[in-house]
Each structure stands twice: as structure tokens, then as C-alpha cells.
Amino acid sequence: MSALKARLTDDMKLAMKSGDKARLGVIRLLLAAIKQKEVDERVTLSDDDVLAILVKQSKQRRESIDQFQTAGRHDLVETEQFELQVIETYLPAKLSEAEIRQIIADTIAATGAQGVAQMGAVMNAVRAKVAGRADLAAVSQWVKAALGG
Questions:
Q1: Can you give the chain as a three-state secondary structure string?
Q2: 102, HSE (Cβ side, Cα atoms, 13 Å)
Q3: Domain range for residue 119?
Q4: Do 74 and 128 belong together in one domain?
Q5: pTM exceeding the 0.70 threshold for the entire prediction
Q6: What is the pLDDT of residues 64-102, one digit of tens each?
Q7: Of 84, 10, 78, 97, which Cα lies nearest the Cα of 54?
Q8: Which domain-ending residue is among 59, 88, 117?
Q9: Does 101 share its domain with 75?
Q10: Same domain for 10 and 81?
Q11: Domain count, the chain
């Protein structure tokens, strides 16, 4: 069992004992998503795989928050924000813009990319380095700008 999945399981038990039903519900949703992936692919997930699921879940919450705010559903916004806060406790610390830009510059130098044509190769390398710690849409824009696009 991955360390991250074990941490989620332990936190679920603590939430049950403390009677924190809201947090318990979120953790159960996360564990269900992890279990579903394990069953679908018939594998035991690594920490990187679990992290990818958590990143996907956090992205879904952010998108839901935007949609609910547009629709004026503030009750649902609060619920999604709480779930997002719980999910983010399991994600690694976010990188600063300066750190991300440095990673991009180092990756461009290492790959020898000269223009936007090599953006895919640069993004693949950068994505591996910033997984779960940065918004990939913003990273993509910065990579494109750094490559002169």
C-alpha cells in the first residue's frame, strides 16, 4: 500500500473516531476513487498514481466552484471549497512562480529545445517535475512564452 493511501486510511479512522462527518465523507470519496482505479486496472497504485488521482479530484472541485459561483449556488460553493481544502492537505506544497520558471529554464537547457516545435518534449519533462505542485495550464503558457511562442 502506498504511503499516501495509508495516510488517507489512517485519517479516515481518526475522522470516524472524532465524529467529523464532513471530513470523513471527503476522505471516503478519495479512497473510493483510488479503489475504483485499482479495481479497473487490477493494480496496486503507487504514491505517484494516488497523487495523480488527488490532483484530478482537486481540479474537479475547482471547476465545480467556478460553475457554482457562476450559477449563484453559494451553498454548493462552500461545500466544494471545504472538499478542496481537505484534498489539498494531501497534496505537496505548491511551487512559487519563480521556482516553476527556473524548472522551465533548466528543462529547456537540458533538452536543448529551440522553439515551440519542441514544446511537447519540454512540457513532458516539466510535468514530471511539477506534478501536483503547479497549475499545468499556467505552466504550459510559461513554457510557450519561454520557447518564443
A1: CCHHHHHHHHHHHHHHHHCCHHHHHHHHHHHHHHHHHHHHHCCCCCHHHHHHHHHHHHHHHHHHHHHHHHHCCHHHHHHHHHHHHHHHCCCCCCCCHHHHHHHHHHHHHHHCCCCHHHHHHHHHHHHHHHCCCCCHHHHHHHHHHHCCC
A2: 5
A3: 97-146
A4: no
A5: yes
A6: 999 999 999 999 999 999 999 999 999 988 899 999 999
A7: 84
A8: 88
A9: no
A10: yes
A11: 2
Residue 144, judged by CB atoms within 10 A of its CB (0-12, 13-18, 19+), counts as middle
132 phi and psi, to 5 degrees? 80, -5
Q: Which three cell numbers stand for residue 138?
A: 499556467
CA angle 11, 33, 67 (to 5 degrees): 100
Report the C-alpha gap between 117 and 37 in whole angstroms: 34
Same domain for 136 and 101?
yes
- What would the pLDDT profile of 18-46 be if each residue is shown by its tens digit? 999 999 999 999 999 999 999 999 999 99
Query: Which of 88, 114, 136 marks a domain boundary?
Result: 88
Query: What CATH number did the domain enclosing 114 receive?
Result: 1.10.10.410
Alpha carbons 30 and 36: distance in angstroms, whole number: 10
Q: Are residues 103 and 75 in the same domain?
A: no
